UniProtKB/TrEMBL annotation:
Species of provenance: marine metagenome
Name of the protein described by the UniProt record: Uncharacterized protein
Length: 307
């Protein structure tokens, strides 16, 4: 099933629930299913398939881009069409699981539903006929995070289109982190990858401040970040992708933005509705920087939760 190499938000909201529906509605043998993902995201599929193939075990991130030679430029179309990348990943997946023949379920099948509804994100009532939402399985301990305390918040403030690199946003991040210092500990989810260096400055490690960038490897990045989030009191930051992951791990998610959310607002409404009806999940809240005093209420609530 896969490969999924698109955005994490759509993977969490659409692709994984679609696979769960396909598997359960057709009565597929759980032990014969194999999922293909990248960057350690396979942890989110553990209740779907016992066998998971990690694309970055075989291809570097740059190589994945290079192999995608017959894909068109649109990211949406890359997911809709089978490409050279898909065929190459399918080859190594068959090799890893020792299968001569497989029946692939490509994201193209799901995107045909999008075409049918003439909307992206799709109409929830229509799409949920083909989706089953559940909390993600708990992320198993890797042994890499034994130094983390019991109580902490997970923090990640990368710059992006909804939270660009401006002096105002940098000052805002500083003010948020200053407010968070009242909590027992802060764990920054920043990576050490050159292509992800556009993150706001973070505090030096020590005195209740923890970093995990030295533990990061491309094929385990999302697994490690998910493990940290899974044990956190809350996720706080500007990263759109991880903001959607956290609630499905049962963790409250506070997502800050300084630019108006136009297309993103549709996904947020979709997510809020789904999460409100899915047992074991938590809230996803988008907060405009101009109303960021709400962080004080969040900190007070998290502090009270410990007492």
């Amino acid at each position: 099933m896969g490969p999924w190499v698109g955005d994490i938000r759509s993977e969490v909201l659409f692709w994984i629930p679609f696979l769960r529906w396909a598997s359960e509605s057709h009565g597929w043998d759980h032990n014969k299913l194999v999922t293909v993902s990248r960057g350690g995201a396979g942890e989110w599929y553990r209740d779907l398939a016992p066998r998971r193939v990690e694309a970055l075990d075989y291809f570097g991130a740059e190589e994945l881009v290079r192999l995608d030679t017959d894909a068109v430029s649109s990211k949406k179309r890359r997911l809709q069409d089978r490409t050279g990348l898909d065929r190459e990943i399918l080859r190594v997946a068959k090799q890893e699981v020792g299968a001569k023949r497989v029946k692939p379920l490509h994201p193209k099948v799901m995107y045909q539903l999008f075409s049918a509804t003439k909307a992206e994100p799709p109409d929830q009532e229509t799409f949920r006929k083909f989706a089953i939402y559940r909390r993600f399985p708990e992320v198993p301990a890797s042994g890499l995070l034994e130094e983390l305390p019991q109580d902490y918040v997970a923090v990640y403030f990368p710059f992006n289109s909804s939270f660009p690199d401006t002096m105002g946003n940098r000052r805002f991040v500083d003010s948020v982190i200053e407010r968070l210092k009242i909590l027992p500990a802060i764990v920054f989810l920043n990576t050490n990858f050159a292509d992800e260096s556009d993150c706001s400055p973070v505090l030096e490690a020590g005195d209740g401040v923890y970093h995990i960038d030295h533990l990061m490897k491309a094929n385990r990045k999302l697994a490690l970040q998910s493990e940290v989030i899974d044990g956190a009191m809350a996720f706080i930051g500007s990263d759109v992708d991880l903001a959607y992951v956290a609630p499905f791990l049962g963790v409250e998610s506070i997502f800050f933005h300084s630019e108006p959310l136009v297309a993103e607002a549709l996904y947020l409404r979709f997510a809020e509705s789904v999460l409100s009806e899915t047992d074991g999940t938590n809230d996803l809240t988008a907060v405009q920087v101009s109303t960021a005093e709400r962080i004080d209420g969040v900190v007070s609530r998290l502090t009270a939760r410990r007492t």
